[in-house]
Design a protein that fits this description.
mainly beta; 64 residues; 1 helix
């Protein structure tokens, strides 16, 4: 099939915004009380406390 007649063009303008730099930090996941982590086979859960967020293993989470 051939197209005859006027051809239309497709134009697309791209605009890029400057995104601020994302900063993060990484640390091992371990219980705040006993220091056991997922490498020890423990489940670790974060809990928000009045002084911040702390990580607890399945044993110490129930005590908080």
């Amino acid at each position: 099939m051939s197209m005859q007649g006027s051809t239309s063009s497709l134009m697309q303008d791209l605009y890029f915004k400057k995104i601020p730099e994302v900063k993060s930090s990484v640390s091992e996941v371990e219980c705040y009380i006993c220091g056991k982590g997922i490498q020890d086979g423990c489940c670790i859960t974060a809990k928000t406390l009045p002084y911040g967020t702390a990580l607890f293993c399945d044993i110490h989470y129930a005590l908080q």
